[in-house]
Amino acid sequence: MRISSLGTSYVALPDAPGPHPGVVVIHEAYGLNDNIRDICGRFAEQGYAALGVDLFEDRNRAICMARMFVGAMSGNLDHYGVPALKAALGDLAAHPEVDQDRIGAIGFCLGGSIVLTWACTDQRLAAVAPFYGAAPRPRDAIRRACPVVGSWPGRDFTTKAAGILETELSAAGIPHDLRVYAGAKHSFFNDRWRNYDEAAAADSWQRVLAFFARHLRGHNGGRTTPTADGGP
Questions:
Q1: What is the distance between the alpha carbons of residues 167 and 142, in angstroms, rounded to a whole number?
Q2: Nearest to 200 by CA among 159, 164, 152
Q3: Which domain holds residue 68?
Q4: CATH number at residue 23
Q5: Is residue 121 part of a domain?
Q6: Helices of type H across the chain
Q7: Backbone angles phi, psi at 27, to 5 degrees
Q8: DSSP code for 51
Q9: pLDDT given for residue 137 in this prediction
Q10: Does a structural domain hold residue 178?
């Protein structure tokens, strides 16, 4: 694995030469930290070029989060944070070792909510993987999303998003794999956090890899696929 930076973002590349499929990795409210860097490294080990984006970029975290929250609640699909992700995808796509036609994204909590909103507005995304993310507003925008592999804990304020997404994605015929892990808690994927759930984290990671293998490695323009994909 090779490590570099792109502005304030973190880049992890496979050892083998490209072009590689790419993944934008979007952090929780804690920002771009060692947990997110580790996830980028895990993707690189699987043959992906991973970019850990920094949505705060040394700005005031509370103000950034407030802007994102207000934008999301108002149904603004291009709210604070989404333009930054669109720019990050452009940066990753321009990397000489990345296949610009095979790029997806994964996000956690704050990042999980924003990645779902972003997926409704950017045709360049081949697939997204939200973890404990809230469903975007307006709800009918979800029917314009790319393929989604989503994971939620059974006991969390975001869990109802799984049902909303199931309804809207199924109605639009968008491939998806959505799962709620009974007994798991918020941030169950973060192995540096007290709520880490080893079984849920391992299963969700394998589902993400399987889904991305189909929609990024074997990208076929997933937005036009006519049937929903209920599992890995």
A1: 10
A2: 152
A3: 2-224
A4: 3.40.50.1820
A5: yes
A6: 34-45, 61-73, 82-93, 110-119, 160-172, 198-212
A7: -75, 170
A8: E
A9: 87
A10: yes
CA 196, 198, 204 angle in degrees (round to 5)?
100
Q: Which residues are within 8 A (CB) of 179 and not within 5 positions of it... i.e. 6 or more apart?
A: 150, 151, 152, 162, 203, 204, 207
- Residue with the bigger pLDDT between 10 and 55: it is 10
Distance between CA 195 and CA 155 in Å, rounded? 11
pLDDT(204) > 60? yes
Is 62 a residue whose pLDDT tops 60? no
Give me the mean pLDDT over the 156-162 stretch.
Answer: 94
28 vs 229: which has the higher pLDDT: 28
Mapped onto helix, strand or coil, the DSSP state of residue 175 is coil
User: Which ranges in 127-183 belong to alpha helices (H)?
Assistant: 160-172
DSSP tag of 143: G
- Show Cβ contacts of residue 75 under 8 Å, excluding neighbours closer than 6 positions: 137, 138
Residue 231 counted as domain residue: no
Domains held by the chain: number: 1
> How far is 104 from 126, CA to CA, in rounded Å?
5
Is 232 contained in some domain?
no
Helix (H, G, I), strand (E, B) or coil at 191: coil
Residue type, 155: R
State mean pLDDT over 13-38. Answer: 92
